Amino acid sequence: MDIKEVEDNSIIEYSRRSLAVSRALGDYEYKNVEGRGPCEQLVSPEPEVSVMDRDEERDEFLVLACDGVWDVMSNDDLCNFVRSRLVLTDDLECIANQVIDTCLYKGSRDNMSIVLVTFPGCLQPSADAIQKEVQLEATIERRITELVRQGDNLKFLHVLQTLADEDIPGLPPGGGLSAKQNFIENVYKKLCPNKSDSVEL
Predict the structure, then answer these.
(1) Start and end residues for every CATH 1.10.10.430 domain found in the chain
(2) For 78, which of 24, 54, 73, 90 could close a Cys bridge (C-beta 3.0–4.6 Å)?
(3) pLDDT digits (tens, 9 = 90+) for 94-108
(4) Range with the lowest mean pLDDT among 19-28, 74-83, 99-108, 190-199?
(5) Which fold has domain 127-199?
(6) How many whole angstroms separate alpha carbon 11 and alpha carbon 24?
């Protein structure tokens, strides 16, 4: 192995540690090796493409998302979460926002974007599912109220941690308690308006 190969291998190893994925746009410092074509650079813009046949009756939806989402949700988690939201609303912008919020609360620190496309086979809003969500939120609100009444100086983080330690039935699959954090914050602010500035994490 000559010096040039050693240098190339070192750069490749560095790029693997500093980049999570290959990118078609940007990262120019990994695409300027002289004598190599565009697809032979350290970071290749050449996409990996898979072709799948569509099933008009069974296909429900398609999700396109970037690292910030996949860092904290698996494929199954995200699909289950989106399904659980589709039975509550057909507002795709609302569902996409809920995914991003949930990922933030799960601790994602990377860029996040998501595109959600539904197909004719997707789930529709259901009165039964909506009623279950109402009951879930009533249960959470009742528990937060109990916690706040137990202590005059109860901080939001303590409320959140207590709820996380409890087995609350009916939380959104794939999202868990993180999917209800906006709701929890709003309830806490309503019950403790003088502490609303302490909600920021």
Answers:
(1) 127-199
(2) 73
(3) 999 999 999 999 999
(4) 19-28
(5) Arc Repressor Mutant, subunit A (1.10.10)
(6) 19
